[in-house]
Amino acid sequence: MTRIRVRTSFALGVLAQLSAIACAAPALYDCAYLEDVGDEIGSEPRSINEHGDISGDVALEWPLLRAAAIWKIGKAPVVLPLDDRYYAEGHDINDRGQVVGVGSTHAEGTRAVTWRHGQAINLYKPPGEYVGDRAFALNNHGVIVGVIPMQSGFGRHAAVWHGDRLFDLGTLGGPKGHADRISIATDVNESDTVVGQSQVFRYKPHKGMHAVRWDSARTIVDLGTLPGGLISMASKINTAGVVVGYSEFEGSLTRVHATAWSNGAVRDLGTLPGHDESLASSINDAGVVVGISNSPGEATWRAVAWYGLDQAPTDLNTQVDMASCPDYRGNVYTLQWARAINGSGQIAASGRSVSGQLYAGFRLVPR
Question: How many CB atoms are closer than 10 A to CB 328?
Answer without folding.
Answer: 8
